[in-house]
Every structure is written in structure tokens, then in C-alpha cells.
Amino acid sequence: MESLIYDCAIIGGGPAGLSAALVLGRSKRNTLLFDDDHGRNLVTREAHGFLTRDGIQPEELKRLGREDIAKYDCVQIKKKRITDIKRITESHYQLDTEDGDTFHSIKIIIAAGLKEELPNIPDIENFYGTSLFSCPYCDGWELQNKPLAIIADKMVFKLAKEVYTWSKDLVVFTNGIGRLEEGEKAKLQAKGIKVREEIIDGLEGEDGQLRSVRLEDGTLVDREGGFTTPLWSHSTPFAKELGCKLSEHGGILTDDYGRTNVWNVYAAGDASLIVPSQLVIAAGEGSAAGIGVNGDLTNEYFDKE
After folding, report:
1. I need a labelling partner for 189 at 20 to 30 A (CA). Which of 149, 178, 211, 305 fits?
2. Burial class (CB in 10 A: 0-12, 13-18, 19+), 49
3. Distances (CA, A) of 61 to 3, 194, 239
4. For 165-193, how does the pLDDT look when each residue is reduced to its tens digit (9 = 90+)?
5. Residue range 242-264, pLDDT digits in tens
6. Distance between CA atoms of 256 and 135, rounded to whole angstroms?
């Protein structure tokens, strides 16, 4: 058990958490970063759209981030899972870990990201992250001009419109669940986009490379990749337990510097934004939250009588 009260504890060691830690380290703030290495991009072989690091493996990006932070000895990285956060006094929180350790911090940044539940389709996990993705801005370039599947039960029309930028050879699969308005279906068909509303029986291919979508009646529809819409939820319960308000998209509601409605609790990255979900945006959010924390600590010190 530690008696030191840290300036800030960051929950999550992805781009948002690492960026916040970098700002706080350079601000000479005693900071803890907790990362249990269970990020949802572990299935991703390459991360795209991050300036100077386009195509990097997510684990390599994390390694480089930790290397940057290692220069600042006021930041400690703990490979531990936080299981409980509780307010001890008006000015600080207690954080309990899965292995029984306890830490104390004035400020908390929730940057733990999201967890995702894939559509209930047999074998989909064998292709997700290799030839089937969730974000066309992240992976559309690599699939450009290929025959693609849009497998979605929500935001069907929106996703199909977005992917059309990268490929005109699209088939939308609603899996018997997704809903398209008649007007939306007509617009898609007018662009040459086929719509299949049958239930999907499974996906076929090898080594993560999609080759066809198998419908319930045995029909095979040849496709070489595609996009789907997972169900996203917060990877930790802390926002709800601490009383943080959520946005209309389900993200933790914050101001421009990561402040939530709960005193001394901040949020950054996918946990805050939900969409769009990109590494570079998450990193920017983390940097802003780090500035917010340091600025508030500075103001609170000078406001003391």
C-alpha cells in the first residue's frame, strides 16, 4: 500500500493515456499510468492515419510511446488492472488493483478505451482485424476497389455510403436484423450497391482473408474483405460508478480539456469520443486532458489561501 498521493492517475495506456502521461511528465507532475495490455486493437496488424507512423503495428506505437515517457522519472507505468476507484476526501481518490495494491491520486483520467462485441455471425472473429474492419478511414485504402461486404445491423446506410468512397463494388448484408428505409435502399441500389437481407450462416476464407459470405440457404457471395459495425461499450465501469454524464453517442461527456461533470475526473480517447475512433484523435484528446489536469492543479495551488 502506498501513502504517497499522486497528482494524477491515468487508467489506460493507449494513445490517449500515453499522450496525457507525456504532457504531465513534461509538467513535472507525479503521475501513475495503469495499463493491463488488453486494448481492443490487439487484433489489428497495422494502424493507419497516424502522422509519421502510418502502417505501424499498434504494439510498436505503444512501445515508442513508453520509450518517450521513460525520460520523465515522475511518471510510473504500472502493468496492473484497476478494479475500484473511490473518493476518499474532497481532494483525492483511492484506486485498488486486481492484485490487492492501493494507490491514491488527486486527479483521475479515464482513458481505458472501449470493448467491442462483434455481430453474432459464425467465424467472424477469424477475419476481424485482417480483412474485415470497423473503420473505413483506418483501413479503406488497403481495401480500395475490391469487392467488399458491408455487414451491419445498425448505421447500415451511413457505413455503406462511407465505404463507397473506396470501392464501388459493394454488397450490403443486413443479416436479417439490420434495417434500411425504402428510400435508403433505393439510393444504394441506384449506385449499384446490392442489398442482401438474408441471415448470414458464416464466412469463408483462409488465414484471415475473406473469400465469401455464406447465406442461410447456402448461397455464397464472393467478397474479398469488408466492414462491419461492432457493438461498443466502455471497457471499465468507472465512468458510471463515479457519476460521469454521457453524450448522446454513449461517450463520457467532457469539455475541451477532458473535464467531466465530476470534480477531479477527466476522460480522453475512445472512452470520451466513441466515434470517430482513430489513434491520432485519441492521442490529441489525451494531450488536451493532460493540459487540463496540469492547468487545474496549477490554478488550485495558486488559489489556496
Report:
1. 211
2. middle
3. 33, 38, 26
4. 999 999 999 999 888 999 999 999 999 99
5. 999 998 878 899 999 999 999 99
6. 24
Tell me, what's the pLDDT at 179? 85
Q: How far apart are the C-alpha atoms of 200 and 87, rounded to whole Å? A: 48
Give the residue carrying C-alpha cell 513535472: 28
Q: In this structure, are residues 131 and 151 in contact, taking their beta carbons and an 8 Å threshold? A: no
Nearest to 223 by CA among 249, 256, 193: 193
Residues in a beta bridge with 232: 116
Place of cell 467491442: 116
Do residues 47 and 133 lie in contact, with contact meaning Cβ atoms separated by under 8 Å? no
The set of cell numbers assigned to 286 is: 489525451
Q: What is the pLDDT of residues 8-18, one digit of tens each?
A: 999 999 999 99
Q: How far apart are CA 255 and CA 203, in angstroms?
A: 42
pLDDT digits (tens, 9 = 90+) for 52-73: 888 888 889 999 999 999 999 9
**Model's pTM, two decimal places?**
0.90
Q: Which three-class secondary structure string do you get for the chain? A: CCCCEEEEEEECCCHHHHHHHHHHHHCCCCEEEECCCCCHHHHCCCECCCCCCCCECHHHHHHHHHHHHCCCCCEEEECCCEEEEEEEECCEEEEEECCCCEEEEEEEEECCCEEEECCCCCCHHHCECCCEECCHHHHCHHHCCCCEEEECCCCHHHHHHHHCCCCCCEEEECCCCCCCCHHHHHHHHHCCCEEECCCEEEEEEECCEEEEEEECCCCEEECCCEEECCEEEECCCHHHHHCCCECCCCCECCCCCCECCCCCEEECCHHHHCCCCCHHHHHHHHHHHHHHHHHHHHHHHHHCC
Backbone angles phi, psi at 15, to 5 degrees: -55, -35
